[in-house]
Design goal:
single chain, globular
């Protein structure tokens, strides 16, 4: 097969992928995005996910709070490989913020543009498709003795578009025969993890999200770590 034929076949496959992801589905998720379930194979958030002394225990609701068109969800959860407290000590905690209000969503996009936080055109994600953000927090002290008496900072912020919007032709990647970008780019913008990102928690929404997540974490630790929870059962 010649290079030209191979390139044409690649372009055809990409176009086929593009047609499978309709603008209507993307627009629907931009209007309202539903957070996917976590570890659905184990139904982690079902009443049967954990048992304490043979009795089922349900973890608290993953939605931490909703305020002015922004939904904030717990994005770090017990996975059964270690105690939840040790998991948090080693890896910190994360939250998802969903911009369900169109006015809020447009304001975030505008802010990213004005602060030059967006990647240049051609990297596969259209800023206009931004719908949610992942914020990751970590303690100021490495492996702290008391998680809930610690000071925290932000180590990572990732901005995303919904899965129905992930498409190289629907977004800003140029549809040339020589384009080798994948068809599943979802990040719109992000902080540079290579550099030691250590952002202070100055935004009131970030601060509230952290406190809500820590309260959720503490409740989960009481349920899964402190009362002899059996994590081996599905």
């Amino acid at each position: 097969m010649s290079r030209l034929m191979g390139a044409l076949l690649l372009a055809s496959l990409c176009l086929s992928t593009a047609s499978a992801q309709t603008p209507e589905k993307c627009q629907a998720q931009l209007q309202h995005f539903t957070v996917p379930g976590v570890d659905e194979s184990r139904t982690l958030f079902s009443p049967r996910a954990f048992s304490v002394r043979g009795k089922p225990v349900k973890l608290p609701d993953r939605l931490l709070f909703s305020d002015k068109g922004i939904e904030v969800y717990a994005n770090t959860y017990p996975d059964g490989r270690d105690s939840f407290e040790n998991q948090i000590r080693a890896g910190g905690v994360g939250v998802l913020m969903i911009y369900q209000s169109e006015a809020v969503r447009q304001a975030v996009i505008k802010e990213l543009r004005e602060t030059n936080a967006l990647p240049p055109p051609g990297f596969g994600a259209l800023p206009d498709n931004l719908k949610y953000v992942e914020v990751h927090f970590y303690t100021d002290t490495l492996l702290p003795a008391n998680l809930f008496a610690e000071k925290w900072h932000i180590t990572r912020i990732n901005y995303y578009q919904p899965s129905a919007c992930r498409n190289v032709f629907q977004n800003d990647v140029h549809a040339t025969l020589g384009n080798a970008y994948p068809s599943s780019v979802d990040e719109v913008a992000y902080t540079d993890e290579i550099k030691a990102v250590r952002l202070p928690i100055t935004n009131p929404l970030w601060a509230r999200a952290l406190q809500a997540m820590l309260a959720w974490t503490k409740e989960c630790i009481e349920l899964t770590d402190k009362r002899g929870t059996d994590l081996s059962k599905p």
